[in-house]
Write a structure and sequence with these properties.
Elements: H1 2-29, E1 36-44, E2 48-54, E3 57-62, E4 80-88, E5 96-99, H2 100-117, E6 122-130, E7 133-137, E8 141-145, E9 164-173, E10 178-182, H3 184-199, E11 207-216, E12 219-223, E13 228-232, H4 233-236, E14 253-262, E15 267-271, H5 283-286, E16 292-300, E17 304-310, E18 313-318, E19 333-342, E20 347-351, H6 353-356, H7 366-370, H8 382-390
Parallel strand pairs: 3-5, 13-15
Antiparallel strand pairs: 1-2, 1-4, 2-3, 4-5, 6-7, 6-9, 7-8, 9-10, 11-12, 11-14, 12-13, 14-15, 16-17, 16-19, 17-18, 19-20
């Protein structure tokens, strides 16, 4: 009996120890490599953190397993960390090695896959310039080719370091967990959306603000906010100009009038003249038929001369009203007599010969000087033919 009484407490102690050992081993079995858990920092040293991940289990996080920008010195006991169990030392004392960096990378990969599946944009910061593009921090590393950063070529890639890009996934390597991204795709999608919104609101006669984005010999292109429109040279100024640079420069903000809009072709014709004073408004007060005025010769042809009476207002001198063999040169100042003035049609006919008093009134042109202005075409004479040719030379 005495032996029985002595052995019973020992057996109970052994049973209790075995139970605790079994429970501990079972708790370890619930933790597998690759699991992501939330733990609490319970101790720290200069180069390691001890993290309680539940189930009477604690694991080690070294400084190398923290994400960029994090350091052990900044961590505090009681702080929580999301960690991944990346190795369990089953041959030794069962130490679990944890990684905050890998946990973050895994979750990021899942977010990247989800964003790719739903065609959603991701924000990421440029961390480094490499050959052919830049690296970005998504929570994992991503690559953006230089051609995919903007819609137009990027000059100095170093200027992008530290800046945030809006990106979409364009290529994935599931095995290596590598991702290639593009901001250009995002920008082009946004531009196309703006174009569609703008196309639905454009109409002839509207006044819109735009930015001059390109100059050509024949006019200036203006960005209206997703769609480029053209201001032809004839619509840039009431004056005669040879190149749009005489009026505007790239980057100028301009108020333009929509003259014509072809929605199918997505072509917009614009005018800048509407915002400028029309010089023809002053013609009735400044010029009268039969008066003599000084003018500048701006064009010489075999059939007519074109003279500028004052900026923006021109007159046509038919071949019967000047001596072809003694015709002045472009840029010369000449004296002309105003034979007819049609403000509505923006046409003035003048004479060099009558201004000098060396010619009688030509019987072919006399009917036009005395007859009232009408919309009917003039008789079929050489003067009428010359006037028709001049129509394209004077502002309309």
């Amino acid at each position: 009996m005495a032996q029985t009484r002595v052995l019973e407490p020992k057996a109970e102690a052994e049973d209790e120890f075995a139970l605790e050992q079994r429970l501990y081993e079972e708790s370890l079995k619930t933790l597998d490599e690759g699991q992501v858990l939330v733990g609490t920092i319970v101790a720290k040293s200069n180069d390691e953190l001890l993290v309680d991940i539940g189930g009477k289990s604690e694991g080690v996080v070294t400084g190398r397993e923290l994400s960029s920008g994090m350091s052990i010195s900044e961590m505090k006991i009681g702080d929580t960390l999301e960690v991944l169990v990346y190795r369990i030392d089953s041959d030794g004392d069962g130490t679990m090695y944890l990684s905050e960096k890998r946990a973050r990378g895994l979750k990021t990969w899942e977010k990247v896959l989800e964003a790719h599946e739903h065609n959603e944009a991701i924000n990421a910061t440029v961390t480094q310039v490499v050959k052919g593009g830049v690296l970005v921090d998504l929570g994992m590393r991503g690559f953006v080719p230089a051609s995919q950063i903007r819609r137009h070529p990027v000059g100095n890639l170093d200027e992008l370091v530290g800046k945030q890009l809006r990106l979409k996934v364009i290529d994935l390597d599931h095995k290596r967990r590598r991702v290639v991204l593009s901001q250009r795709v995002v920008l082009e999608e946004e531009l196309n959306q703006k174009k569609q919104e703008l196309l639905s609101t454009l109409a002839a006669g509207q006044i819109r603000e735009g930015t001059v984005v390109r100059l050509a010999d024949f006019g200036a292109f203006v960005d209206l906010g997703g769609i480029d429109g053209l201001i032809h040279n004839s619509e840039l100024s009431w004056l005669r100009i040879k190149h749009p640079s005489e009026v505007v420069k790239i980057g100028d903000k301009v108020q333009v009038e929509i003259m014509k809009f072809d929605q199918d072709a997505k072509k917009v014709s614009l005018s800048l003249k509407h915002s400028l004073d029309d010089p023809w408004k002053s013609v009735p007060e400044s010029l009268t038929e039969g008066s003599v005025a000084a003018a500048t010769l701006i064009k010489v042809t075999a059939n007519y001369l074109l003279v500028e009476l004052f900026p923006g207002v021109t007159a046509m001198v038919p071949k019967s009203e000047f001596e072809a063999q003694d015709a002045p040169s472009p840029g010369d100042t000449v004296t002309v007599k105003l034979l007819s003035i049609n403000v509505a049609g923006r046409r003035i006919t003048a004479s060099l010969l009558k201004a000098s008093g060396t010619s009688e009134t030509d019987p072919d042109i006399a009917p036009y000087l005395s007859a009232p202005e009408t919309d009917a075409p003039p008789p079929a004479t050489g003067v009428a033919d010359e006037s028709a040719e001049e129509t394209s030379e004077q502002p309309t």
